């Protein structure tokens, strides 16, 4: 109970710090970096839901991120749809296309699924890069409007956009929390641990995998739409494999299959990237070996390793009285045997 209370306390403290960040740090550059980090977190939560809790690694999520962003840009700039309607339609369109892709992709398993989704992600990148008349191609897509006002709420300033993105991040974390600790979340974990055993228990693995995949695509497309409304300029690079590598880095460093992993990993890697900007040209050479070593020697990430450490301490405290009692009984027994030997002698 104390551990749960401490966890809730830490969550409250971190949420309060996030809310107070614009008041504590007035530098607009750091505010920009934090807003972008929150957007990455939402995308990584989408990846974590499917890869971390269902056990299937999708390498197409950078493509879905880009689709959400470009769909918002095209609907608002070229079609003239009002912002918030375009925002909803962009997420729904990407999610629907993700469901169609998932129906085909989920007929494969393990590394075949990863290869298939990698190909899908690259196809999305090629479509964005080559379809100049629709996406602007390598010239990029400009003129995306900022989020429209909702009644008295205006989102034209960086601080207001920060709180808007933070609101969506809190909503995604809340949905993830309720999902993971529900029967549906337990079902996803059962599929991750052993799909064959889940089938024998009567679980519809295809239905649950598709539901997890579709929801993960929705989270990622939501992050893409927020990215487009915040940056207001898009290029095909946001669909490239390097963005997918970033998502995986954030997730694996933080801890795959944990609720805190996307937050911890994204903040840590983003902070390190900002400190090592002078090595930007060698970024892949630096983070590639680090990520490889992390997977080999610390596969559960920072949050996952901390959770396992807490579990071991809890188990050790639970077993300590039994061990002390057994040691006391052994000491008494040894003393009794020693006294008997002394009497016989």
TrEMBL record:
GO terms for molecular function: branched-chain amino acid transmembrane transporter activity. GO terms for cellular component: plasma membrane. The keyword Cell membrane applies. It comes from the Bacteria. InterPro entries: ABC_transp_permease, LivM-like. It is a multi-pass membrane protein. CDD domains: TM_PBP1_LivM_like (cd06581). Its main location: membrane. The chain crosses the membrane at residues 30-50, 57-77, 83-105, 112-128, 162-180, 210-235, 247-272, 284-307. The keyword DNA damage does not apply. Keywords: Cell membrane, Membrane, Transmembrane, Transmembrane helix. It is found in: Cell membrane. PANTHER family: HIGH-AFFINITY BRANCHED-CHAIN AMINO ACID TRANSPORT PROTEIN BRAE, HIGH-AFFINITY BRANCHED-CHAIN AMINO ACID TRANSPORT SYSTEM PERMEASE. This is Branched-chain amino acid ABC transporter permease. It comes from Geobacillus proteiniphilus.
